[in-house]
Amino acid sequence: MRDTTKHQGLRNQLATVLNKKGIVDEKVLNAVRKIPRHLFIDSSFEDHAYQDKAFPIAANQTISHPYTVAFQSQVLEIKEDEKVLEIGTGSGYQTAVLLELKAEVYTIERQHELFKRTSLFLPKIGYKPKRFIFGDGYKGLPEQAPFDKIIVTAGAPFIPKPLLGQLKVGGKLLIPVGEGTQIMTLLIRKSLKEFEKHELGDFKFVPMLKKKN
Ligand code: SAH
Question: Could you tell me if the CB of 156 is within 6 A of ligand 1?
Fold first, then answer.
């Protein structure tokens, strides 16, 4: 596992590309400049690690586009020590960004292979979420609720009710909703019963699936 000045140079360029695409949060851009994304993907794709591309990882899943990760991170406006639930650990790249933003992260993955692999890999390169959970993100994590922020990184056919219920008042749920293409949807909890909804454009994610695998 090597990280070189060449990789650092490529990361700086990627941050510039993301900035031109509309990512202006310096903390998010600094996370992109810092995290060795090439270590999160198969070494045969290493040359592409710092282009704004999605890639296959284990278990037929993908690591999201850097732009998508940066966009979701920027929208959530993560602050230090906020309690964040992530649905869809995958490669752990988004998890690493949340940790660079100093969140307290709980991350759920339904594919056992990915859960195992990423829960070993991330701590090895210095990224330590509060908990890795092998489970079904549709249910959220009631025993640790409420959360300041919930981020879903798979395409959800609908907004799971339990996730809304596990938000603090003032908290935010960011979830791509739809089949095929998804609309990035931000829900802000205004009170116990009221949510404000914002639609933030089209994205493409792998589908959020039910049950563990
Ligand atoms: N943030 C990840 C994105 C991975 S793709 C990254 O940047 O690498 C989406 C991930 O969501 C996949 O790993 C998939 O297995 C997982 N997933 C799909 N349905 C899920 C569910 N119901 N609960 C938890 N994880 C789920």
Answer: no
